[in-house]
Amino acid sequence: MQQISNIGRRKTAVARVYLRPGNGNIIVNKKDVKVYFPSDVLQIIVNQPLELIGEMGKHDFFINVKGGGVSGQAQAIRMGISRSLVEMNPENRPAIKKEGYLTRDSRMVERKKFGRRKARRGFQFSKR
């Protein structure tokens, strides 16, 4: 097996994930995942698909992620890792799909409209 590449998206974050055989290194934008995501919650989100199918420490992931915030980036990475694991072994698909890691969460921020303070919130009205 050589390299498997996949893409994951969430909000405006896009993650390109490259899977190679290795010993469990996860490199995000040329930094270790623990350095890039100091929060334990975000590290757990990134590792969820690996823990689900019991593949922790068996593969190296090299990830380029851009756009969005840290939470959206972590969820985009989770989706990319899930897609890579399914491509590597199609038997993993039912378990990963059941958890919803293959589903694109397309919720995005609604754009601001003119004549309004935000997307739907109007300006404060003063009678006098």
The overall number of domains is 1
Q: What is the CATH topology assignment? A: Ribosomal Protein S5, domain 2
Helix segment count?
4
Shape: elongated
**Record field, number of beta strands:** 5
Q: Please trace the helix and strand order, writing H or E for each element.
A: EEEEHHEHH
How would a crystallographer describe the biggest sheet?
Answer: 5 strands, mixed
Low-confidence stretches: none
Mean pLDDT: 94
Q: In the CATH hierarchy, what is the class?
A: Alpha Beta
Neighbour order of strands in the largest sheet? 1-2-5-3-4
Description:
- By secondary structure, the protein is α+β, with helices and mostly antiparallel strands.
- It has a single domain (4-99), classed as Ribosomal Protein S5, domain 2.
- The chain has four helices and five strands; from the N terminus they run E-E-E-E-H-H-E-H-H.
- The chain has helices at residues 33-36, 40-53, 70-88, 93-99, and strands at residues 4-10, 13-21, 26-28, 31-32, 59-66.
- Strands 1-2-5-3-4 form a five-stranded mixed beta sheet.
- A hairpin with a 2-residue loop joins strand 1 and strand 2 (13-21).
- The longest helix has 19 residues, at 70-88.
- It is elongated, with a radius of gyration of 18 Å.
- The model has no long low-confidence stretch (mean pLDDT 94).
